[in-house]
Amino acid sequence: MIKKRLVAIAALATMAPLTLAACGGGGTSGGGGGGGSSAKVDSLTVLDYYTDDPGKTQIQDMLEKCGTSIGVAKINRQPVPGPTLIQKVLQQASSKTLPDVLMLDNPDIQQIAETGALAALDDYGIKADGYAEGPVSAATFEGKLYGLQPAANTIAIFYRKDVLAKAGVKPPKTWAELRTAAKKLTVGKQYGFAFNATADYEGAWQFLPPMWTNGGDETDLKSPQVAEALQLWKDLVDDGSASKSVVNWKQSDVNDQFIAGKAAMMLNGPWQIPSLQKAKVNFGVVSFPINKPDQTSVAPLGGEAWTVPVTGDDAKMKKAAELVKCMNSDENQMLRAKQGGLVPTKLALATQFKKEVPAMAGFVDAVEHARARTGKLGSKWPDTAKIIYTGMQLVLTGQAKPADAMAKAGG
Amino acid sequence: MSDAETLATASQTSSPITDTGPSRRRGGRRREEFLKVLFVVPAALAIVALFGYPVVKNVVMSFQDYTLKTFFTGKAPFVGLTNYVAVVTNDVFSKAVINTALFTIGSIIGQFVIGMLLALFFHKSFPLNGVLRALFLLPWLIPLIVGSAAWRAILEQDSGILNVTLENLGVIDNPVPWLTSPRIALLAVILVNIWLGIPFNLTLLYSGLQDIPEELYEAGALDGATGWKAFWHITWPNLRAVVSVVLMLGVIYTLKVLDIILGLTQGGPANATQTIALQSYQRSFVEFKFGQGAALSNILIVISLAFAVVYLRANRRQVDE
């Protein structure tokens, strides 16, 4: 008896890994199969990165309402944390289980479109007429539109109204004013200005306002315009107006410093507004200052777009495109902007939005001129971003002069 | 491998029970052999699936142009040594190698010396010994990412508690740029890693100390070997096996440390804390150059393997002695 049982156990144990492997294999063949193109679509799968409320519920409501309006009964939505989204997409791509509708951060669109995973929205009659230039160029790859972005954000200068008023300082409009204002506002434990200069894409993103505003370009990082922008960051730190810790401060750290009263001004985005309001900070927002009189302030475009992955199911893809269109309707653009502290990407709506929500005026102007990180370089952007943040760190830690930092960083 | 061995011995010890009579012995022996094999099969399969496959896949990947596209098209053309050439000729590579060496050596020396001293200290009996020893395990209980976030706050230049304390004590006049100066950041990261590694060293060395028979010390004391002499002639030789295990595991763990550096500096400032492990992570999961990431991790595996070989040889020599 005992022997028999032992044999059975051994056999079971041998089988276990095989069954597990079989399950793994079976799961992958799930959603890929192409149904008939005339089949009725009663559900769509959606992948996005709004895992926390209020955004999570707001997106859910909007998706469900759009689903109803296009005649799709069920939206199967799966939000995953932002940093893991691309990895999730890669897993799904290799197992042929991509969702019907996919949310992508705007600088990732071209890279994913290049792999052939996304369907061109032009094929479904979707055009981006009346949109600001930034979001369209971010979502365009080889002349075709792959994503539609309902609302955008960017970064601008936040300042503490009370602190500036007390010191008799006006919000800076030029780089010179930024330097003198920051210097004047540096008192005791309070720095005049705070920004993020970490060794990652976040640090590169925060360097773009000075670089682009000054006419610098990502295709030529060794230009004097870029060097001047590096010099500005260096001057602010050398003056003592910004902490040396900026090389290790993420945008959330910068916001913490601002809330704690350890920075009178900061470079940051509208997603920080809820925490500022919660902490009852009396703040104002202005676009990033310009260096020379003839310049306009240019900031990088942020925010995410809705895309339609190639799943092979024509009927579902058609419905998915309709869902993307609905998520970008005028009504939904305004709603999303108000809910998420964002700016509508259709220019006409942005103007109206500025009147309705004056507190966001500083960002509305910035978004109109906002430039997409991938607008010029497309999928080559990550390599350039790496050079930008490395060069920036070399300058701020005194290991290279602004003029040759980018060359030293591999640019 | 050890799994397979223990399973095999398990089947052996269970065999007397299954042999019920002499008449069934011959057939039973063959079945017994078969059973032994059956017991090994699951472990062997698990090893092949969980260790063999990833290693082979990683080696293959390092010779392929494995990028984002591969996930969608399934195509990863072979490119020979291109990935290895690309990672080795990268400007940051030599820095990463030096940093990896400094980080590993610094961490191991610090962890081992402090762990050893603490183990010797706790080996003496005194009140609250157990409580204190348990407290020293705390760093081990905290999730790494939480630990590094806490240390990032502690080491903050302007308002971090370490600088504030040192300034109040009058040890320093100006705040130390722990994580913001390229010259000091690596040292700061090593210090945090030492903090993290002490429990591991302390626990293993402490248990090694407890295995040394008390009589040896008593006999030694009669011959005049006390204090430092007792340590050198009794403790150290008896602890050597444990020490070599601790050091080898320590080296292999430390070579591949990633989370602490990611949490503290992300390799900055200005690449001052870049290591091979961090480079590998960034290539694969930030830049999506999976082929290059695999090449770097293979380089790490070879280095770890070299240490494992050194350990095995040293161990064999000890056994021979």
TrEMBL record, chain A:
UniProt keyword annotations, A-Z: Signal, Sugar transport, Transport
Gene3D superfamilies for this protein: Periplasmic binding protein-like II (3.40.190.10)
Signal peptide (UniProt feature, chain positions): 1-21
PANTHER family per UniProt: MALTOSE-BINDING PERIPLASMIC PROTEIN (PTHR30061), MALTOSE_MALTODEXTRIN-BINDING PERIPLASMIC PROTEIN (PTHR30061:SF50)
Coiled coil region boundaries: none
Origin superkingdom: Bacteria
InterPro entries: SBP (IPR006059)
Presence of the UniProt keyword Transport in the record: yes
Keyword Transport set for record: yes
Organism of this sequence: Microlunatus panaciterrae
Family membership: Belongs to the bacterial solute-binding protein 1 family.
Protein name, per record: Multiple sugar transport system substrate-binding protein
Automatic annotation (TrEMBL), chain B:
Membrane-spanning residues: 34-56, 101-122, 134-154, 184-206, 238-255, 290-312
PROSITE patterns referenced in this protein's UniProt entry, alphabetically: ABC_TM1
Domain of life: Bacteria
InterPro entries: MetI-like, MetI-like_sf
Feature: compositional bias, Polar residues: 8-21
Keywords linked to the UniProt accession: Cell membrane, Membrane, Sugar transport, Transmembrane, Transmembrane helix, Transport
Coarse class of the protein's main subcellular location: membrane
Domain ABC transmembrane type-1, chain residue ranges per copy: 97-311
Membrane topology: Multi-pass membrane protein
Sequence segments annotated as region (Disordered): 1-28
Matching Pfam families: BPD_transp_1
Annotated localization: Cell membrane
Entry similarity comment: Belongs to the binding-protein-dependent transport system permease family.
The name this protein goes by in its record: Multiple sugar transport system permease protein
Taxonomic source organism: Microlunatus panaciterrae
Organismal lineage: Bacteria, Bacillati, Actinomycetota, Actinomycetes, Propionibacteriales
